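Same chain as my last thread, 140 residues:
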Amino acid sequence: MAMMKEFKEFAMRGNVVDLAVGVIIGGAFGQIVSSFVNDVLMPPLGLLTGGVDFSKLMITLKEAADPAQAVHLKYGVFINTVINFLIVAFAIFLMIRTINRLKRKEEALPAVPTTKECPECLMTIPLNAKRCGHCAVAVK
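reply #2:
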């Protein structure tokens, strides 16, 4: 029973739940990108390259009477996969770049000071203080 309790604590940690959500969203995002590459990007690219469908490009290494026994080197599928990866990497780059810009803007704003140092004893006192609470010196 203690093992189940430990597992429940592990599974319900914020990091594990966040990771699970990230994996699920990543899988869905991967499907969107795959559809974009295969259904939107590749047809015009194939048209520009003379009607070549990259997914059908292959080298037959071994002929066979039964198509299931034939051995093919499907370099066209590899080209599709590389293009898919580049699009995903570029999309993630743009997303991270935007997030970093937003963080820089937040960091660029300096915090408004609420305290100052006493000129006599150098202790920290409130900004609006008229006297230092530590040494009783009048401050401006």
